[in-house]
Amino acid sequence: MSEFMIFLAEVFREVLYMSLTALIIGAAVLLAGKLLQKKITPRWQRLMWLLVFLALLVPFRPESSISLSGFAEPLRSLTLREDYDRSQQQYQVLPDNMQEAFQATQSGREHDQLRIRHILVDIAVPLVWLVGVLVIAVYYLAGGVLLRRRILTGKAETDETGINKLLDECKEQTGVSKEFEIVFQDHIKSPAVFGVLKPKIILPLYVDEMDDTGVRYILLHELGHYKRYDMLISLVMMIVQALYWFNPAIRILLKHVRQDIELANDAYVLGLIGEEQKANYSNTLVEALGRSGGIPVCTRLVCMADSKSDIKRRIESLKLSGVHNKNRIAAAILSSVIITVLSLFFLTGSGEAAEPGSPYDDIAGTWIRDYIRGEEGEKNIIEIFTFDPDGTLSVTSSNNGVRHRVLNGFYEADEENGTLRLEYTHIGTTDNSNIGVITVTPSYTLSADRSYLTMSDDGHTAGYVRTVLPSIPLLSGVWTGNRKDGTPVVIEFDINGILSIQTKHDGLLSEREIMGYSLGDSKISFGSVSYVYSESPELRVWYSTGILISTDGYKLLLHDLASGESAGFLHEGEILELFRQR
């Protein structure tokens, strides 16, 4: 995958995560507004919706031990890229003439299915999302330009002297100093405010026929939207609709946001004109709805009248204004508590989801050293160091395929000075001698890619290759399968680096062939060595085979990679598929 696609997939997963947490917050805000309608004022209800926008647009989440957002964390790791890259890496080590045979195996079919799922999850879906975002963004931009053109070209000639005087009075009453242009037209059927930098108050032609009181209410309403930054919120809502176009639940939340913005603005206007004008203001709303035809308007405008159900809810909210005024302090306290609780629980990251890294992450893992000892090269030594992230250590060595010793203990890594402190107990050898506690403090270095470890102590240097894909504990166990000619094969991998191979003939198992094995990148190596001792710590063996292990750890694929050599139990060009005994 390209870096762009990796980045795009990560962004899309983050969008999924944020949408889920935002939906929980939105549902809580809706529930609070429904159950506490008489206790929470429209202004506080509007403020609560800002939490939803924070959840939808701000990916940063400070960690908290009381966070409840951990349920959404799996969405952030919803990817098959690493699994597919690992499978593809193992597949690519196959010789060209064996890849067709691999496709016919169960592992080959699983590899193809994984590739399809990977393309769907990590490429196709994020691309479709991005295309949708771009299409909607272009639609909004083009629609905004077209709407502006229609408004300006459809501008009607009217006497604006009187209404401009009303506008100046309303600006003084609301404390708005920004210059506004009044535009009479017949395209938008509801009074609205349009634009941020050069705002315009859009008025249908019927407004010119209304009395001054009704016009004053309309102007106060639209100036209230501007003063309360509702136009900016409208722009944010368009961004959210573009980013989350795939989620209908987000669109439902935004509909409620728009409704509560209007309720809060009505409460603001009512605060300016006084409770005694509540009935007259309600009549103006009804008249605007009747003249507009009740047709919902687009998101680019903040309109005074929308649907019939919206107007009904707004009038009911106006009736509660007296109750809200009496309970202002209680409403502020209750709303503040709800906002604080939602922020602490859902605008924070789960501390459990982000486990702290081990101080030994660089060196943690299993490392293999395979070398010859003795002038005649008679000893094939395989040495295995396993550094656990929790600071425990195990060391296993085998001599010519026979386990020689096992050491268990602890280690400390000083990464700054490049030194180790190893303390382990000698719990067993072939002759049960030299049992005791051993402490050594070698220096160590790691290669840039963290795949090669060198340890030095008392002038002796040894190099180790990190085992990857898979680790020895994942491989250890009994595996069974059939050769190409149908002969059953049983292979047991010991966790200490020893394996035994048996075949079945007439239902009887043959004698065990025992040897040492080690693991490298996408391959398993085993057998006797045919070289003399060298100071070079590279892994050198007689033969090696490719290895592919399924994600559930119960399928293993072997094939011969060595040129001119054979693994003995494998036929030339054969792929041996094995299954772990559960």
What tags apply to this protein structure?
single chain, 582 residues, alpha+beta, Zincin-like, Lipocalin, nine-stranded antiparallel beta sheet, eight-stranded antiparallel beta barrel, 42% helix, 25% strand, elongated
- Main sheet properties: 9 strands, antiparallel
Shape: elongated
Structural class: alpha+beta
Strand content: 15-25%
How many runs of DSSP E, i.e. beta strands? 24
Mean pLDDT: 78
In short:
The protein has helices at residues 3-35, 42-57, 81-92, 96-103, 106-153, 161-174, 212-227, 230-243, 248-273, 278-292, 308-319, 321-326, 328-346, 472-475; strands at 63-64, 181-185, 192-194, 200-204, 302-303, 349-350, 365-373, 379-387, 392-399, 402-414, 419-429, 437-440, 443-446, 452-457, 460-466, 477-482, 488-493, 498-505, 508-509, 513-520, 523-526, 543-549, 555-560, 575-580.
What do you see in this structure?
- The protein has 14 helices and 24 strands.
- With about 575 residues, the chain is α+β, with helices and mostly antiparallel strands.
- Among the domains are: about 190 residues, Metalloproteases ("zincins"), catalytic domain (Zincin-like, 2-Layer Sandwich); about 100 residues, Beta Barrel (Lipocalin); about 110 residues, Lipocalin (Beta Barrel).
- The longest helix is centred in the first third of the chain and has 48 residues.
- The chain is elongated.
- The two termini are about 35 Å apart.
